[in-house]
């Protein structure tokens, strides 16, 4: 490799390091790098640099987060989650899987996994506290559920991965990618429950793997999304009602139970939102229309139900993700123009057998993703595998799915957004102790998950 090819690679590593230790969006660094590489190494003007701008992906992120952000604001998302929880009617061992399913549905519909975890984790961790279920197991299942649906044909991550692969002339079956992700995350959740159940029995742990029905109301409502109980004088529980001094917010361990008699009637706006969600699914999955324009149109229709909150709806768009993806994809595309990606791929191929190259890439993206952005890593690492896939030695969908899942499944780390959300919502357990549990579990996942993805999705299909 020449110095012209090496310098952008060093800059890419520096971007990840800077974004890991400083609160700077890596997309900003990507745009700066794209300008430096394009203008000074390739001699491009601004129009030629921006020709690599991923407009379709950006529009998808804007449309999906705009529409589903308003669905969250008007209570439709909470309505769906609570309906699923009430459906099990007191069967405690099923409720964790309901949370898994709810999180997977949210992400499959286009919600970002951190947003899905933010919606589900308060109810999930409250339920775990009331049933003496391990908060670690519940947190893992919530995060795994969010990851399970994260690569659906209409999700942002699914669209991103397919766009990267198809831009190289390869094809990938979107549903195969989705079911591969769902299957691996479901398997990891089963292994988590079984493993903790065995450990709890052997070591007589404080919490159980699936919880106990003691503490759940007899009508079977279970813990669900709700507002805090009002204290004396209408003050929310945990807040000081005094007029002066510093108010202290205390997280109370008890959360109100949503039961049949607590169910609020479905509003007209929520009914409209449900119809629009169904319409989006039909138009995208059946008629194959672009999710970006369809979601924006659905959001525009929903906007007329409350025009006074449009500034909040626009602010709810995941602009940080837009910036991250746009900057990184633009920079990686210019690295491909220089030839850096092709040379790295050729060097990876010289490691030896294609299967060995695949497992190395899975561990590289898995270990790095525990500390850095999974989305950014997908844009950087998947292109490295494309020349290998073009040889036909390995299954395209298997390798891509293994890399994508390895990048996201390690987000149980407390350093990630998802892990931090679970940690923040934990109840009836000391935070430092729970932090250490999440950290230990993340280490186990980093050690096992990439190998599992490689074995199930790459090695077995290749050798059989």
TrEMBL record:
Q: Where is the Dicarboxylate carrier MatC N-terminal domain?
A: 3-150
Q: According to the UniProt record, where is the region Disordered?
A: 212-246
Keyword field: Membrane, Transmembrane, Transmembrane helix
Membrane spanning residue stretches: 6-37, 49-69, 97-124, 136-160, 172-199, 274-301, 313-334, 355-386, 392-417, 438-460
Q: What is this protein called?
A: SLC13 family permease
Report which superkingdom the organism of origin falls in.
Answer: Bacteria
**Record InterPro entries:** MatC_N
**Is Nucleus one of the keywords UniProt gives this record?**
no
- Ranges annotated as biased composition (Gly residues): 231-246
Transmembrane helix in keyword set? yes
